Amino acid sequence: MVNPYDDVTDAELSVLEVLWERPDGAPVREIVIAIYGRHEHSLHGGVKSFLDRLMEKGYVEVDKSGFAHQFRATMARQEFVGRHLKRLAESHFGGSLAPLMLSLLDQTKLSRRDRAAIEKVIEKISDEEQKP
After folding, report:
1. Contact yes or no for 50/91 (Cβ under 8 A)
2. What is the chain's alpha carbon radius of gyration, rounded to the nearest angstrom?
3. Helix/strand/coil (H, E, C) string of the chain?
4. Splitting the chain (132 residues) into consecutive groups of 10 residues, what average pLDDT does each group show?
């Protein structure tokens, strides 16, 4: 089970970003090239270390059945971000999401598309609350 309280470094997050773009998984070499634009032994070792740490934290799994091991993220980006936002709300806003959302909205200029998406979510929540 993934512990949402384990911190993920920026370097580890870079690896997760690559894996989220490749839901079927990727070998270390492909991840290295996606991050650095080239493959070198030292870069390969570094990315492998990041993958090992992410596996320890439960964010990555490996399929060793083929010649090149395939690494995959164990959760979708949206779930990962959601867990971290929930953690932020718990640590800074007493667990309340409204102040977190309002703080974020105060700092951001929303596009029409983003406003429409937020309105749709609020409408869905309102509709669910009205159901018996």
Report:
1. no
2. 19
3. CCCCCCCCCHHHHHHHHHHHHCCCCECHHHHHHHHHCCCCHHHHHHHHHHHHHHHHHCCEEEECCCCCCEEEECCCHHHHHHHHHHHHHHHHCCCCHHHHHHHHHHCCCCCHHHHHHHHHHHHHHHHHHHCC
4. 68 97 96 97 96 96 94 96 90 89 87 92 85 72
Q: Which two tokens stand for residue 76?
A: 């979708």
Tokens of 92: 């800074």
pLDDT at 5: 47
The verdict on pTM exceeding 0.85 is no
Architecture of the domain made up of 1-95: Orthogonal Bundle (1.10)
The total of other beta-carbon atoms located within 10 Å of residue 70's CB is: 17
Q: Cα-Cα-Cα-Cα dihedral of 37, 42, 44, 49, to 10°? A: -130
